[in-house]
């Protein structure tokens, strides 16, 4: 379950940045191609925030869609899984979005 490792990394970064301030919410962007299960990440986030300044914080997960561009024919298309194959048959595909994994914002007091 890589969601646990991701949640731990997010909480460590948020707590480091927050210092002694209470964290109320965290917004993350986790691309569709990262194969993260939002419910699992939510569960893991609640586990790893226990005893930290982020305990009880809300986790908001944005899931940017996977998009790619074929270098052979120039077509742009949606990628719903990590198999990078254009309708023209080419596997020479540039991933434009969907692999994001970042903390977008956090609310503290």
TrEMBL record:
Binding site for Zn(2+): 70, 73, 86, 88
Cross-referenced InterPro entries: Hydgase_Ni_incorp_HypA/HybF_CS, HypA/HybF
Domain of life: Bacteria
Protein residues bound to Ni(2+): 2
Keyword Transmembrane helix part of the UniProt annotation: no
Pfam families: HypA (PF01155)
Record keywords: Metal-binding, Nickel, Zinc
Stated role: Involved in the maturation of [NiFe] hydrogenases. Required for nickel insertion into the metal center of the hydrogenase.
Family: Belongs to the HypA/HybF family.
HAMAP family referenced in this protein's UniProt entry, alphabetically: HypA_HybF (MF_00213)
Entry protein name: Hydrogenase maturation factor HypA
Species: Rhodococcus olei
